[in-house]
Amino acid sequence: MTDDLGHMAHALRLGRRRMGQCWPNPAVGCVIVKDGRVVGRGATASGGRPHAEPQALEMAGAAARGATAYVTLEPCSHHGKTPPCCEALVQAGIARVVAPLADSDARVSGQGFEYLRKHGVEVTTGVCAEEAARDHAGFFLKVEQGRPWVTLKLANSFDGRIATATGESQWITGPEARAAVHGLRASHDAVMVGAGTARADDPSLTVRGWGAVRQPVRVIVSRLIDVPLMSKLASTAREVPVWVVHGSDAATMTRRAWESCGATLLQSEVRGGRIDPHALLAALGRQGLTRVFCEGGGQLAASLLAADLVDELVGFTAGMALGAEGRPGIGAMGVDRLSEAPRFVLEEARAVGADVMHRWRRA
C-alpha cells in the first residue's frame, strides 16, 4: 500500500503540471511500474490528446506486460478521436491498474474499470482519492453542473484596497507575487476580467516568464462590450484567444468590430443590468472550459461571490495601507449579517517575496 501511495503521488504530480494545458479534457497523469521500477510516464498532452495512458505505454514498450499502471482517473472506455485507454492497457498486457476514483462522465463512469476487470486486469481504486478529486474538480464540475471551477484572485493592500482613490494600482504587490500570478494563470484554462478592469488596466492577461505554455483564453465580461478597440486584448485577439461575454443589447456594430479583431463573442443572459453569473459560467462550460482564473474587477467578483460560484480564493496582500478612499477589491454584495457572507476555509498561507499569499477553499 505504501508503494501504491508513492506511485500515485507521482502520477498526480504529472497530471498537475498539465492543468490549464489540456482542456476540455482532464489533466491526467499515468505512471507504469514493473518490479518496483518506473518504466513509463505520461500526462494528458496539450489540447487534450494524446491521453496520459498511451504516452506512458509507448515509453514502457514491452516492459508494460505484467506491469502496474497508476492512473489519476478511471481510464476512458469510449471511442472518440482516439481508441479507449482501457483497451490500450489490456492490449499492452498491463496486469494491474490503480486509480483513485471513477470518471463522472456518463460515457466512462465505471465502464472503464468494468472493461479492465472483464479482461483479467486487477483493479484497485480509492488510492489518493481525495487529492485526485481536488485535482479533477474543474472537470467534474463541467461534466456534472456544466460550469468550470472558479478561482478568484485579489492582489491588495493590508486594508483590502486594489488601487488608490485616483486609480493607481501598479504595483501594490512585488515582483515575486506577480510571477506567482503568472504561474496561476498557466494552471487555468482561462483568465477572466470585467469591463472595468479591462478599461482601467489595459491588461494583456497572458502568461509570461513560464516558458512555452498553452496560453489561457482571455475572457472579458461586458454587457455592452464597452472596452476600447485600441486595447491590448483587442489588438492581440488573433494571437491569443479572446472571448467576449456580452448581453443581447450590445450594439451590432460593436460586436462586428470585435469579431473583425478575431474575438469570439458569446451572448449571455442579463439580470439586474449585469451579466448573470450562472449564465456566464454555463456559457464558458459549453465551450469546454474546466478552470477559470478571475482577476476582477470588483463588480464581477461580487456577483460571483454573491451567487456562490467561487470555488477558491487566492489573495496576495502587501504591507501597505491605502485608507478608506482607496478602491475596494470587491464591490457591493448587500451583506447585512455575518451569517450571510460566503465562508471559505484556509488552505495555505506563506510569504511570497515581501507579500503574503493566502489560499482559501469553499467551506
Structural account:
The chain is of the alpha/beta class and 363 residues long. It folds into 2 domains: 1-138, Cytidine Deaminase, domain 2; 146-362, 3-Layer(aba) Sandwich (Dihydrofolate Reductase, subunit A), CATH 3.40.430. Helices cover 29% and strands 24% of the residues. It contains 12 helices and 18 strands. It has helices at residues 2-16, 52-60, 85-91, 111-118, 129-135, 137-145, 175-186, 195-201, 232-235, 252-260, 277-286, 298-306, and strands spanning 29-34, 37-43, 68-71, 96-99, 122-125, 149-156, 161-163, 190-194, 217-221, 242-246, 264-267, 270-271, 274-275, 291-294, 312-317, 327-328, 344-352, 355-362. A 9-stranded mixed sheet has the order 11-10-9-8-14-6-15-18-17. Helix 9 (232-235) links the parallel strand 9 (217-221) and strand 10. Helix 3 packs parallel to helix 4 (111-118). It is globular and about 65 Å long. The two termini are 31 Å apart. Its cofactor is Zn(2+). Pfam families: dCMP_cyt_deam_1, RibD_C. InterPro entries: APOBEC/CMP_deaminase_Zn-bd (IPR016192), CMP_dCMP_dom (IPR002125), Cytidine_deaminase-like (IPR016193), DHFR-like_dom_sf (IPR024072), Eubact_RibD (IPR004794), RibD_C (IPR011549), RibDG_C (IPR002734), Riboflavin_Biosynth_HTPR (IPR050765). The active site is at 53 (proton donor). NADP(+) binds at residues 155, 169, 171, 197, 201, 297-303.
List the helices and strands and how they pair.
Elements: H1 2-16, E1 29-34, E2 37-43, H2 52-60, E3 68-71, H3 85-91, E4 96-99, H4 111-118, E5 122-125, H5 129-135, H6 137-145, E6 149-156, E7 161-163, H7 175-186, E8 190-194, H8 195-201, E9 217-221, H9 232-235, E10 242-246, H10 252-260, E11 264-267, E12 270-271, E13 274-275, H11 277-286, E14 291-294, H12 298-306, E15 312-317, E16 327-328, E17 344-352, E18 355-362
Helix pairs in contact: 3-4
